[in-house]
């Protein structure tokens, strides 16, 4: 009896801790399970119609459909102009753009331009609802440095579901600096939209969301492609990585250990390329890299285990196969962005934000008619984010920022450029030098929030107004209730 108990206790300990240690059952990985036999889907470039005044007009239709992810199985999905994800929009700095966003879903949604500088009423946040059957028609002038931005719904309480089902797409802004890099879309310049998913036995997207972070999938899609490969035909290739996952963060690298050049963060190009072997992206973040290939080389883009709650696991993402003959690319430019780094004045205003476990920011959950902060348009401020537990990140609409420090230390090399979304490690204090756009609007709020979509949906979001400098104290922090939920800025169908 005695020896039996002695044996049982360690066994029980092993069992309990063994299970807790790997998050339930087996380690989270897809390594060894893929064949890399599906050609990577490349979202179409959306063709605008150009009006006589030069405005580029685009149409996006939100629709439901079915998509084959797992071979031979069709999943019910949502997409824009297609069954899953949306086309890539590519414009140049200075362009006037206008959109018709047609909602052919059976439910209301919105379309937010993540990373875009525009008037608040065009932002597509939770106040710019598009009812089922209706059309929203925003328009603005592109006036910001080249960047890889993206679009996705922002319905308060429903963003996770709408994005997970497939409503997202890439929005590329070009300028003369950006053209120094490989820029031939689909040839030597590729979007890589990375999303984790869980599938049911019959190949449907599982919306089971049993973690405090929401769905953390065990399978990865790139541009909506399961088990993908990409044929490489140029000696230098630019990849625009977008983490469009609901909660998972990735630690990107290549299985052959190669290094590559990081050339851009979320909100624009770096001054100079930075040589890296790994970098992380949390949900909503983007990066551009340039990878050099020799004829016949093969490698796999991989996400390495970081061991945290949202970046645990090992994943193969995309196999790259270089052709036996490659087009010789121009040498990589040494000087990329000519935009100076974001600096704040000495007496810059400091705002503090406390993120807590209960999905609150500064002890409050998001309320649609409450304004939390009033910021002078065009201001440069320091925002200090304190994470009091669990993993979060932080995104600000209509702003670009530079990470000043994380717990007083310089940020890692891969996040020193212009950004609009940043990972906030558990327990950390992150200080940002934030530059706000210069559009004042005392009526239409903008958002700041955790971009882990379940957190955002459950209230980890606040609203700010950009107002004419000097009018801060005159602006109401209460929004009128009636025109709130269903404010339309476009025409009805
Ligand atoms: Cu990517 Cu407030 O959004
Ligand atoms: Cu945004
Ligand atoms: Cu969070």
TrEMBL record:
Region (Disordered) residue spans: 473-493
CDD domains: CuRO_1_CueO_FtsP, CuRO_2_CueO_FtsP, CuRO_3_CueO_FtsP
Domain Plastocyanin-like: 63-177, 235-294, 343-465
Gene3D superfamilies, A to Z: Cupredoxins - blue copper proteins
Gene Ontology MF annotations: copper ion binding; oxidoreductase activity
SUPFAM superfamilies: Cupredoxins
Highest taxon listed in the record's lineage: Bacteria
Keywords linked to the UniProt accession: Metal-binding, Oxidoreductase
Compositionally biased intervals (Basic and acidic residues): 480-493
InterPro entries, sorted: Cu-oxidase-like_N (IPR011707), Cu-oxidase_2nd (IPR001117), Cu-oxidase_C (IPR011706), Cu-oxidase_fam (IPR045087), Cu_oxidase_Cu_BS (IPR002355), Cupredoxin (IPR008972)
Family: Belongs to the multicopper oxidase family.
Protein name in the entry: Multicopper oxidase domain-containing protein
Species this chain originates from: Bacillus salipaludis
